[in-house]
Amino acid sequence: MASAPFSRGLHEVAPNCWAWFEPPGSWGLSNSGIVRIGDELLVIDTQNDVPRARAVRAAAVDLGGPDSVTTVVNTHEDGDHWFGNMVFEDARIVATTAAADGMRTLRVDPRRLADVGAEGSALRRWSRWRASIYDYAGWRPVYPTETFDGAHTLKVGDGEVELRAVGPAHTGGDAIVHVPEAGVVYAGDILFHRSTPIVWAGPVSRYIAACDVILALDPAVVVPGHGPVAGPSGVREARNYLSRLLDHAGRCVEAGTSLEQAYRSFDPGEYRLWPHASRAFQSIRAVYAELRPDLADLSWLDAMEIVLTDDAS
Predict the structure, then answer these.
(1) 9 — alpha (psi -120 to 50), left (phi > 0) or beta?
(2) Which tens digits make up the pLDDT trace of 14-43?
(3) Fewer CB within 10 Å of terminal CB in the chain, N or C?
């Protein structure tokens, strides 16, 4: 597996494949990818705000020239992976049908981020922190121009890459990008490398299955949505964590345990030191929403209040 320092900026992870890292990979600090095929460049995920998107665009131009970026793939509908699309709107922008639909139903408009949550709440503090580090001046949504479902061969220049829709899992419209000749998978948020994943949509079983899809491709390099470059072992770690969580939540559902009790009693085992352990609450909530929705009747605002209060403690 090619290794790359986990420092901000562009790093080559395989021949003609790069990752743009945004350490430490916490809330909203996501990775992007660049793949060179002939004279054209494919950009994977466009960052969370305009300045970060422009930085990725500048790095791409340095690699291939001003007209080299012809194609963008958004791996899913979370804003930190597509809010930079306006910087790339001269390219075709590709995402799953479900992701494109999700982008049009924003839970939070980033231009009003500082006002999210009740005054004095953990959510309001978190939102204001995000508003202080991300710049949405002049931002407007730019949506995908092409969509796909299932497996899709994407032609770029004189070559191609393979796209796989693997959602709903992390979100409703997750996809991965496979570059077979380089042995690289850009996993989007199917992989938070050595950081606690979060399941917005679920089912968790689909998230686990998405990890299996990546492992079946036998990649040498996996670029996660957050965190440093990984190999198959990193994917297995994430899969094991999710399996542990699903087993625990399933037992709690059968016992009629409350959602919060299920969360408080969850033992992540060897993964307990991963950052953002409180994200387990939302992931367990996804299991409850699937199996016992009557026990998971909680708004997104209330769920995030628990996640963020514990995340800050």
Answers:
(1) left
(2) 999 999 999 999 999 999 999 999 999 999
(3) C
* CB neighbourhood size of 142 (10 A): 18
Question: Please, what sign has the CA dihedral across residues 286, 93, 149, 19?
Answer: negative
DSSP-assigned letters across all residues of 94-146: EEEHHHHHHHTS-SS-GGGGGG-S-TTSHHHHHHHHHHHH---TT------SE
Residue with tokens 């690289």: 184
Look at residue 247 and tell me whether its pLDDT is greater than 60.
Answer: yes
Whole-angstrom Cα distance, residue 199 to residue 173? 12
Residue 312 confidence (pLDDT):
85
Tell me the CA end-to-end span of the chain in Å, nearest whole number: 36
| pLDDT of 135 strictly over 70 | yes
> Sheet of 151-156: strands edge to edge?
151-156, 159-165, 175-179, 184-192, 221-226
| pLDDT computed for residue 246 by the predictor | 98
Q: Do 76 and 170 contact (CB within 8 A), yes or no?
A: yes
